[in-house]
Amino acid sequence: MDYLVVRLSELPSRLADPALLSADERREAERRGEPYLLVRSLLRRELGRRLGQPPAQLRLRRNEHGKPELDAAPGEDIPLHFNISHSGELLCLAFAHSPIGVDIEKHRARPFDKLAKRFMGEAQLEAFRARGCPADLFFDCWCTMEALIKRDGLSLWQARRYPFTCEQGRIRLLQGEPPRCLRLFTPAPGYSGAVACDDS
Q1: Which of 5, 56, 144, 156 has its C-alpha lying 20 to 30 A from 196's C-alpha?
Q2: Per-residue pLDDT averaged across 105-122, rounded?
Q3: Confidence (pLDDT) at 39
Q4: Which of 79, 97, 115 is the last residue of a domain?
Q5: Is 92 found in the same domain as 49?
Q6: Does the keyword Nucleotide-binding apply (predicted)?
Q7: pLDDT over 90 (residue 195)
Q8: What mean pLDDT is reported for the chain?
Q9: First vs last Cα of the chain: how many Å apart?
């Protein structure tokens, strides 16, 4: 497992290359603009580098949950899994040989208690309130929750199926088999991040 964190404003515009994208991606880039084109171009370059293949020849699809992934022939394993997260000025691309989820969040004022009550399980909510609803704990919990559900291709509304505690930078899953890799990281000052996958 590895991940790449970049500041979008520092990426050279020459990286945005429509020739690397599929016809569907080019249509989406026309609709969503330059940032989408830049992110997809970078993603394809990184996948191509890791797989030793030309970026434009990679076939991507969406799985049954809508999560983007590399296409594989029926009966074949996906050669490399990836996940994308973007917040503020930062972009994170994560890669693994098993399904992976990553989330980064820029620290900013949010209705922390309201969001925690709506999306977090009892264990997270109890720990969060016991510590006085600190922003850093909220973002650590939020990123962990997002990384877990993105790994499994689920929606935010299914986040409570992963009861965990998040204390002093350590995550402990309270139910089920934890991923081999479930950890917090700091992508940049003022940001939180978490990644979940079964790579060792």
Answers
A1: 56
A2: 81
A3: 96
A4: 97
A5: yes
A6: no
A7: yes
A8: 86
A9: 8
Count of alpha carbons within 13 angstroms of residue 63, beta-carbon side: 16
**Whole-prediction pTM:** 0.87
- Judge if 193 and 113 occupy the same domain: yes
Q: Radius of gyration over alpha carbons of the chain, in Å? A: 17
Q: What is the CATH number of the domain that holds 127?
A: 3.90.470.20
Question: Is a pLDDT exceeding 80 seen at residue 196?
Answer: yes
Residue 199 is predicted with a pLDDT of: 82
Q: State the residue for tokens 């020849």.
A: 57
* Residue numbers of the domain that contains 92: 2-97
Instruction: Say yes or no: 164 and 79 in one domain.
Output: no
Count up the domains in the chain and report the number: 2
190's CB contacts (< 8 A; 6+ apart) are 106, 107
User: Are 127 and 165 in the same domain?
Assistant: yes
CB atoms within 10 A of CB 19: 8
Q: Are the CB atoms for 16 and 27 separated by under 8 Å?
A: no
Helix, strand, coil shares of the chain, percent, nearest 5, are 40, 25, 35
Looking at the structure, tell me whether residues 68 and 122 fall in a common domain.
no
Lowest mean pLDDT among 3-7, 149-153, 176-180: 176-180
| 6 shares a domain with 75 | yes
